[in-house]
Amino acid sequence: MSKTIGFIGLGIMGKPMARNLINAGYPLVVYNRTASKAEELVAMGARQANSPQAVAQDSEIIITMVSDSPEVEQVILGSSGVIFGAKPGSIVVDMSSISPIVTQRIAAELAKKNVAMLDAPVSGGEIGAVQGTLSIMAGGDEAIFNEVKPVLETMGKSVVRVGSVGAGGVAKLSNQIIVAAALQGISEALVLAQKAGVDLSLVYEAIKGGMAGGRTLDMKTPKIMARNFDPGFKIDLHIKDLKNALQAGKALGVPLPTTGLIHELFSACSAQGNGQKDHSVVFTLIEQMAGIAG
Question: What DSSP element (H or E) covers 31?
Answer without folding.
Answer: strand 28-31
